[in-house]
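User: quick one, fold this
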Amino acid sequence: MMFRQILIYPAQCDLLRIMWKTGANEEPVIYRLKPVTYGTASAPFFAIRTLRQLAMDESSRFPLASKVALQDMYMDDVVSGARNLDTACQLQCQLQNMLETCGMKLHKWNYNSKELLNSSSDQEHSFSTNAESAIKALNIRWKPTGDYFMFKVSIPSIASYTKRDVLSVIARLNAPLGLIDPVISKAKIFLQKLWVIKLKWEEFLPDAIAPEWLNFVSCLKALEELKTDRYVLTDSYGKLILLGYADASESEYGAVVYMHSVKENGTTTTKHISSKFRVAPIKVISIARLELSACLLLAQLVEKVRPFLQVHLAKVLSCTPIQP
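Assistant:
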């Protein structure tokens, strides 16, 4: 219902007209649509821009909600949190009040805290009280009870694949933060082979390489066993170090960033934050040049990640390949 709460500027309503007939023998009537309408190319932009403007306009009255709306909202989904229960409650209240000022109502709340879940008096506005349920967002699933991310693979099994089918499988294997990029890059390397042999879109895979792809697809179900912690920090940490690694091979290059937490008692924990992988060009180039590309990719990834961490980092260490 978010689109229907946003009105189009009156002078632009002439550009959104529909024709409607009440009967087969009746003359069509032309209507001008006043709110943002589903199916139009501009609808997502209007929705996002309206929410951003609301957050900026209400930043003084709802500072917590304004910051979250600008940074942690994707379309009409809010994926955010707080460091303690009191702040989380304030954030939830501010988000509800801020959006209600423009006729929008947030619902389907869920939490990784039993205290917050039990304090919710309106069961109608929660996803599910089932402990085994997982919340889907941005193509991954979040398990609130364990506070980790997991994956659901839905790849149809067919006897023979065409080049178009291969691309369709790759398109289904997307996840934020590069959580399964090593798997995706393997599929892209296979797709590159199809370009090299100049296979057409509707042609079936040659017998020589078809078993390789069938074996790859059959192993994708194993991704459902992968679990990634949502919380990349640890309790009572002493210092935080951002670790970055870059490397390259003949077929691909990539970079990955970890959060290295050092507790006050000296124990350490390292958790994945984000990664990026790229398939090497078809034109053969030296490993050294690919390693330089990996170093650039790492530098860009670190600069992109740092502003969103919102924590004090003792060090930022980047580990890059060294040529003998």
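User: anything notable?
Assistant: The mean pLDDT is 89.
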